[in-house]
Design brief:
653 residues; alpha/beta; Rossmann fold; 9-stranded mixed beta sheet; 7-stranded mixed beta sheet; 21 helices; elongated; disordered C terminus
Amino acid sequence: MWKKIRNRHFLLFDAFLLSLAAYVSFVLRLDRLALGNHFLVVFIFGSLALIILLLVFRSMGIYSRYWQYASVDELLLLIGAVTVGTLLATVSTFLLDFILQAEWNLPRSIPFIYLLLALTVTAGPRMMIRTLALYERRGRAMLPMRRVLIMGAGDAGEMIAREMQKNAHLGMLPVGFVDDDPRKHGMHIHGIPVLGNRSEIPRLAAQQEARQVVIAMPAAPGKTIREIVAICEQARVDTKIMPGIYELLGGQASINQLRDVDIEDLLRREAVQTDTTAVRALLKGKRVLITGGGGSIGGELCRQVLQCQPAEILLLGHGENSLFAMQHELHRLRTDADIKITPIVADVRFTGRIQTIFRAHRPDIVFHAAAHKHVPLMELNPVEAITNNVRGTQNVLHAAIAANVPHFVMISTDKAVNPTSVMGASKRAAELLVHQAAKQTGKPYVTVRFGNVLGSRGSVVLTFKQQIANGGPVTVTHPEMKRFFMTIPEAVQLVLQAATIGHGGEVFVLDMGEPMKIVDLARDLIELSGLEVGRDIDIVFTGMRPGEKLFEELFIPGENYRRTLHEKIFLAANASSFVLPDLDEMVDALVGAAEREDETAVYRGLQNLIPEFEPVQHSVVGNGKRTYPPLNNTDLPSITPNQLPTPSYPASR
């Protein structure tokens, strides 16, 4: 029956109940049912209040609300409308009494009594409808209710709890919050108590018969997530988690975003406070060209640039399938149909094609993410590393300079620092080309350098997951192998920030915290899969691959690093001072050797261009050794653990 109630019915209810409220106000004030000589003032005040309140309700949209889904916003709106209407009715009554000199003697307490009664009779029926609808939604649940503890009694936890209560079909019943803030203990949020801190999860889960813990802490660092997951494993309860702050990117938490805990959550760091206003100001209304737009980094660049309302996103890539998928994803994500999405299938190695594209589209800013990045593959194919990473970057830079592009940002890697691989050396050569372009143009052409990206194509994480799915073993090259890790959204945030604070010729580096052992990463992934190392899945050490080193560095000796205004972002302002006077001739000779497929000349050219380049050969289990062309008639060095550099970050200034 209640489902058939519409706003026109509420109008009739209001007309009757507000009139009744005026009468009851006088009964309560005078303490008698018969009003006697107060009848006229009751009629005048009641009539004015009724007419004015109905008009106020209509003008404030009270009769255009869907009260089955009413929230605090609707309740506050109703309170405001009743208050305004009562005030206007009171003023009108006194004003009419003054004009007519009628001496109605309206008791001054009547408006206050009437206000409370009017709120009760208007809010009561509406809240009753909402309550009935809520109980019906709970009663329609198709799944058995799983009792859930929510870790985090903040904004994200509150929203998750509210959605669980509203949507019974989810089959999740929040029975308590867990929070480390003792001031919240004993309090209730949406009727759900805050029971204790994280260390009490085993006891609370048993006490509340909870089968799952939802971690609603999008800003929590990885260390905290690790501790909570370990406690939940001890309590033998499942865990779900809200995405981290980089994944949310300013969006609100939602029950639909809950997912299993992944390795990215265990490696979270505190969010870098980037200036999103400056990024939006730089990109809004601009034509943005992204090379490698179908790749992991390029694709995330597209997503985040899209949020800044550019005029056009130019997706440039060599793989048509990835470009096709990204184009359709951006069409689905965009909120403004005026933002143009233009896919361009092209290879950065073809000079004429790239120049034609820049002349035709005249981009305002270029993010150069196209590159070959797999170290062992590029050791086996050094010609491809040079033609794509070096020649491709040179082509894009020359086209950008010719088209007078104001901003240019190139994605680099920590493997470009003291490189031992062809891939790392090729990216260091590309960095030097960007620095040279910055010196020549005086424009903000900059480089962003960061470590391994979790979840990217070819990421060790994806390899480990596939090995685990196949039943193992999980292969690790060396027990002491360490790497810096960051998430794709985090890396892209740095790239976008560099575009706003770069003046030209700088290298930007993210403070990536402590490096992680690859073997620890493998162990975490096995345990997150619900398996045990040694019992269910083995970890096998296979030996270091060609071009690898045990530890990646972040800083090139001689580069003068300092922290920027953003606490965890460094820059080397003097990076362009490393550019050699004859860089163009050396690069041309290097590219020429690659085009002739002369690998010996390629290695000589790289060592001449990058003196710190020291290629390394390693024995590879089952594959023998990779033989490098001799350089200067000397034996190639091998890496030993005692040669590892110690990571250190510049002090804050």
